[in-house]
Amino acid sequence: MAQDPVSELLLIGWREWIALPSLGVRALKVKIDTGARSSALHVEWQEATVEQGAPWVRFGLKVDPDSADEIICRAAVHDRRPVTDSGGHRTERVFIHAEVQIAGSRWAIETNLTNRRGMLFPMLLGRTAIAGHLRVDPARSFVLGQPSRKDSP
Fold first, then answer.
1. Which one of 4, 59, 106, 136 has the lowest number of neighbouring Cβ atoms within 10 Å?
2. Are strands 10-13 and 134-137 parallel, antiparallel or unpaired?
3. Quick one: the chain helix, strand, coil %, rounded to 5?
4. Total tally of structural domains belonging to the chain
5. What is the pLDDT of the chain when averaged over all its residues?
6. Cβ neighbours for 2, distance < 8 A, ≥ 6 positions apart
7. By residue range, what is the domain housing residue 88?
């Protein structure tokens, strides 16, 4: 009898620690949000640039809201499109591709850049990012543990 492919996916809780290696982020606390189609990453600021005739974006990330440390990132703009937030507000957001790493597994995701100041988590990992890679137990948190000291922000 064949095993259910879903049961072979990595089990995570509703909140976890991840890395975004392509952006230089070693550890970031995220909320896993199966109700959100897209992922959303908090940026302190962002500015449009052009590199070799293509649209890019520069932006600043703070992985620890209590720290003044900021990571300056740049990425090609994948898309710009409207997003409706949980409060029903619709805004146009920049989308980029980034690499996510969870428990040794890595894959490319699409995320939008937005101001999430005041939210408990600097990033939401939406259902399109987790589909085919992870399964979620909403009753559990930090199933994969804490980042090591060398990975902490």
1. 4
2. parallel
3. 5, 55, 40
4. 1
5. 90
6. none
7. 5-137
Asked if residue 153 belongs to a domain, the reply is: no
Question: Against a cut of 0.90, is the pTM above it?
Answer: no
More confident call, 140 vs 103: 140
| The two structure tokens encoding residue 143 | 């199933």
Q: How far apart are CA 1 and CA 102, in angstroms?
A: 30
Return the closest-CA partner of residue 127 out of 143, 138, 119, 115. Answer: 138
Give pLDDT tens digits for 117-132: 888 899 999 999 999 9
pLDDT given at position 149: 57
- 16-52 per-position pLDDT tens digit: 999 999 999 999 999 999 999 999 999 999 999 999 9
- Residue 143 domain-assigned? no
Neighbour-count burial of 65, counting CB atoms closer than 10 A to its CB (0-12 exposed, 13-18 middle, 19+ buried):
middle
For residue 69, what is the domain's CATH number? 2.40.70.10
Do residues 116 and 42 make contact, with C-beta atoms less than 8 angstroms apart?
Answer: yes
